# Entry
Amino acid sequence: QVQLVESGGGLVQAGGSLRLSCAASGRTFSNKAMGWIRQAPGKEREFVAGINWSGTSTYYPDSVKGRFTISKDNNKNAMYLEMNNLKPEDTAVYYCAGDGWGEAWNYWGQGTQVTVSS
# Structure
């Protein structure tokens, strides 16, 4: 059974930082792209970071570019999202995803809540 488990979410003040982790089990993602998608209440899902299988290519939308950094450790079958200078509009449930791109993925985690207070 393939599982993606996120951790590292929480409550932080605006301007603060958080590091999300995604631990994969049940199959290797060393040859697959991975990504982070968030969804705030009443809003559509947003693809906020993507990384190719080798970690050599990344994607960020303008909303987080320069503040978020995605990385991947193929030896640990894990992925991370470093989030700096957080804003209240970053408040959302953040989902880890594997094997896909954009908002179409074959595997999803259960999500972790990130709340940024003003």
Observations:
- The chain has a mean pLDDT of 97.
- The CA atoms of residues 99 and 106 lie 6 Å apart.
